[in-house]
């Protein structure tokens, strides 16, 4: 079968960029991105992209009037389609058994119900691109039994902030499921990904690999954050520790930056999914091991909040605090599970007056400043939550001169030079640094 038409359910952080890059690399195929959310589709079609990602517009511009379509029309998506990617959201369940830990596949389910009703006229390869609980493929097969459908797992490993680069040059592409269909899917990737980077596995391994990858990355963050806590007690510097251990090629130097904790839509929910799976399999010791990675992350956020409140002598009421960054990391507009959400809530409880700024991110129902202009005037503290480059370029001497005294700076990303900030006059607090 020669693949001609590919569709993707879900026009979000994964569906939009993934299909734009695929369309640019596979000019002979047509790519249709379908979403039930009309507003979301309108934004893609009017260049008011719902997500911020470097170089994304270049890839959309290249393809949008050629072989890339964003639509709410299910017929346009499914008619004569060869491959459908499911890239809809799979948040943690918020209800019932497994609430707050198991992934909610009800959005996947609604896609299946739509596909089930549609009169397919040819074989369809249905691809799990969303991160799903293990054995979701069995559920899909059960729902779509007797239809000419082959289910594959092809998890997405892109990271927000570097999505386009990650899609152009993936470390690997994992495809799990029947070999014949896997090879058909691989024929798309082979148009730009070297063959030796495409790994064929059984379908359960492919599903599990995504959950495990995110859990390992979360574990790295919690590991270095746990060391930052020790450093704070003994006067060592966690940045130096990262450099010392990261130069060991067995450990590697990535993901060794201490921070106010990991956020984002994926790490927490995928880690909790792994924990839930271990518990369901009665593997309590394994579950406990991974649960600690999650708990340490919560602790790190709480520790940072406590640091702010206690350093300011528990007296934040009516003090102006400048919050720099609300996104969970730089170079994205995504605020899901950002540490900012918890920090803002706790500082509001302390009755502080918040001035919040982020170059891209917006939090619902919270007033934000449009720029840094005048933001430091009369403020008692600066709290850095996101590592936007813009924040390292601020003239902190000028900021200090405008601020109330004493002037605090709580750097949740170790973004600034502590020595420099202290020399300006700030009471500067980083994480795990002297
Ligand atoms: P998102 O929330 O940005 O987008 C999901 C989209 O699916 C929404 O626009 C929603 O309207 C749409 N949708 C929901 N039900 C639908 C239906 N029945 N038919 C058509 N569209 C429907 O989600 P995001 O971040 O793109 O994540 C999607 C999946 O990819 C999740 O499973 C996530 O865990 C996974 N993933 C996310 C990454 C990320 O960095 N955001 C990276 C790798 C994987």
TrEMBL record:
One of its GO terms (molecular function) is UDP-glucose 6-dehydrogenase activity. One of its GO terms (cellular component) is nucleus. Residues 322-418 form the UDP-glucose/GDP-mannose dehydrogenase C-terminal domain. Its EC number is 1.1.1.22. GO terms for biological process: glycosaminoglycan biosynthetic process. It holds the Pfam family UDPG_MGDP_dh_C. Pathway: Nucleotide-sugar biosynthesis; UDP-alpha-D-glucuronate biosynthesis; UDP-alpha-D-glucuronate from UDP-alpha-D-glucose: step 1/1. Keywords: NAD, Oxidoreductase. It catalyses: UDP-alpha-D-glucose + 2 NAD(+) + H2O = UDP-alpha-D-glucuronate + 2 NADH + 3 H(+). The keyword NAD applies. It comes from the Eukaryota. NCBIfam families: NDP-sugDHase. Belongs to the UDP-glucose/GDP-mannose dehydrogenase family. This is UDP-glucose 6-dehydrogenase.
């Amino acid at each position: 079968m020669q693949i001609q038409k590919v569709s993707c359910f879900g026009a979000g952080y994964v569906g939009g960029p993934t299909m734009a890059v695929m369309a640019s690399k596979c000019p002979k195929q047509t790519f249709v991105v379908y979403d039930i959310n009309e507003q979301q589709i309108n934004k893609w079609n009017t260049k008011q992209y719902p997500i911020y990602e470097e170089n994304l517009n270049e890839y959309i511009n290249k393809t949008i009037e050629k072989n890339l379509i964003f639509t709410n029309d299910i017929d346009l998506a499914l008619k004569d389609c060869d491959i459908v990617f499911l890239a809809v959201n799979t948040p943690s369940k918020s209800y019932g058994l497994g609430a707050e830990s198991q992934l909610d596949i009800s959005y996947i389910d609604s896609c299946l119900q739509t596909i089930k009703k549609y009169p397919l006229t040819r074989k369809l390869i249905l691809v799990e691109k969303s991160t799903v609980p293990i054995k979701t493929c069995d559920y899909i097969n059960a729902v779509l039994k007797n239809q000419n459908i082959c289910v594959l797992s092809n998890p997405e490993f892109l990271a927000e902030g570097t999505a386009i680069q990650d899609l152009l040059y993936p470390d690997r592409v994992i495809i799990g499921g029947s070999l014949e269909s896997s090879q058909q899917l691989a024929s798309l990737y082979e148009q730009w990904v070297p063959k030796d980077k495409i790994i064929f596995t059984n379908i359960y391994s492919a599903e599990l690999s995504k959950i495990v990858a995110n859990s390992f990355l979360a574990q790295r963050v919690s590991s270095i954050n746990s060391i930052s806590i020790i450093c704070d007690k003994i006067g060592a510097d966690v940045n130096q520790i990262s450099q010392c251990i990261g130069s060991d090629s067995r450990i590697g130097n990535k993901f060794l930056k201490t921070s106010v904790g990991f956020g984002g839509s994926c790490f927490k929910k995928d880690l909790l999914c792994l924990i839930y799976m271990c518990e369901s399999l009665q593997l309590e010791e394994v579950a406990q091991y991974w649960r600690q990675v999650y708990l340490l992350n919560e602790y790190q956020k709480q520790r940072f909040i406590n640091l702010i409140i206690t350093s300011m002598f528990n007296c934040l009421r009516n003090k102006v605090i400048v919050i720099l960054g609300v996104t969970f990391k730089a170079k994205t507009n995504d605020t899901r599970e950002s540490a900012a959400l918890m920090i803002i809530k706790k500082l509001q409880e302390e009755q502080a007056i918040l001035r919040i700024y982020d170059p891209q991110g917006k939090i619902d129902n919270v007033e934000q400043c449009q720029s840094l202009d005048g933001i430091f005037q009369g403020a008692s503290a600066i709290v850095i939550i996101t590592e936007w480059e813009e924040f390292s370029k601020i003239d902190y001497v000028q900021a200090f001169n405008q601020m109330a005294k004493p002037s605090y700076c709580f750097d949740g990303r170790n973004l600034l030079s502590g020595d420099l900030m202290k020399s300006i006059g700030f009471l500067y607090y980083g994480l795990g640094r002297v």
